[in-house]
């Protein structure tokens, strides 16, 4: 949930306990949780917090080492809820259900979620974006999810999706809202470096959703990025 919208709920219902849970089906759903016990700014993502009991989280960098505070890596899970793999799909199983590279004493299976995460200054786990949404732009490695978080915090932006146009190397922002391109840029230029500010903006009436109720990024890619000149 975008933090700006969450803060509206929290202000309206201040005595409710709010919890953010995270987990893929492959680890029997929830493996992380966060009880919101402090104030969150509109441009700060809601943490996914800490590992649930009987689960353990490893955030690994490209060298298969544990990340340092603030460093982004792939979130991996181990524990009693871990599946053995995908039924009748050994190739997909072998790609993501792998041996723990940190365990040298015995065989131990972990699941590579494909999600990028990091530890914030409080030691909480913060979800960044899917690994597939990481791009290389102007010599910088960028997570599109971080741009989306900044855009979603701007007053007047209701929903937003960021994509990348490889031809011409452009970051594309597609959004619902009642705000102009120049107003969006004014709202994010203080929190994002220049190389992360989108180059192209599309304002649409309604964001397409997939069967899971999430933004249909594939459809947006086809209609607004691949089809454009």
Write a compact overview of the structure shown:
It contains 5 helices and 13 strands. The protein has 229 residues and is an alpha+beta fold.
Which blocks of ≥5 consecutive residues have pLDDT under 50?
A: none
Main sheet overview: 5 strands, antiparallel
- In percent, how much strand structure appears in the residues? 25-35%
- Mean pLDDT across the residues is 95
Structural class: alpha+beta
Helicity level: 10-25%
| First-residue to last-residue Cα separation | 33 Å
CATH class of the largest domain: Mainly Beta
SS element count, helices: 5
Domain module tally: 2
Secondary-structure element string = HEEEEEHEEEEEHEEHEH
> What is the gyration radius calculated from CA atoms?
19 Å
Q: So what's the overall shape?
A: globular
Known CATH architecture of the largest domain: Roll
Question: CATH homologous superfamily of the largest domain - what is it?
Answer: Luciferase, Domain 3
Number of distinct beta strands: 13
- Per the CATH scheme, the topology name of the largest domain is Luciferase, domain 3
Structural commentary:
- This protein has 229 residues and is of the alpha+beta class.
- The chain has two domains: 3-130, Luciferase, Domain 3 (Luciferase, domain 3, Roll); 138-226, ANL, C-terminal domain (GMP Synthetase, Chain A, domain 3, 2-Layer Sandwich).
- The protein is built from five helices and 13 strands.
- The chain has helices at 3-12, 90-96, 144-152, 181-188, 217-226; strands at residues 19-22, 32-35, 50-51, 55-60, 73-79, 97-99, 109-119, 125-130, 134-137, 140-143, 157-165, 170-177, 200-203.
- Helix 4 (181-188) links the parallel strand 12 and strand 13.
């Amino acid at each position: 949930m975008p933090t700006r919208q969450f803060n509206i709920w929290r202000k309206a219902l201040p005595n409710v306990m709010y919890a953010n849970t995270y987990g893929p089906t492959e680890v029997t759903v929830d493996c992380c949780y966060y009880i919101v016990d402090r104030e969150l700014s509109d441009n700060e993502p809601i943490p996914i917090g800490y590992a649930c009991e009987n689960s353990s989280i490893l955030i690994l960098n490209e060298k298969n080492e544990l990340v340092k505070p603030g460093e982004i890596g792939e979130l991996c899970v181990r524990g009693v809820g871990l599946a053995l793999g995908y039924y009748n799909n050994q190739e997909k199983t072998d790609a993501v259900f792998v041996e723990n590279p940190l365990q040298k004493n015995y065989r131990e299976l972990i699941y590579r979620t494909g999600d990028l995460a990091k530890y914030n200054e409080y030691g909480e786990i913060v979800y960044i974006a899917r690994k597939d949404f990481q791009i290389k732009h102007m010599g910088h490695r960028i997570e599109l999810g971080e741009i989306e978080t900044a855009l979603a915090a701007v007053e007047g932006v209701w929903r937003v999706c960021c994509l990348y146009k490889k031809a011409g190397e452009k970051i594309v922002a597609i959004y619902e809202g009642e705000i102009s391109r120049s107003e969006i840029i004014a709202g994010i230029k203080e929190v994002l470096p220049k190389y992360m500010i989108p180059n192209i903006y599309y304002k649409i009436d309604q964001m397409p959703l997939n069967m899971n109720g999430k933004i249909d990024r594939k459809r947006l890619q086809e209609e607004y990025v691949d089809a454009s000149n």
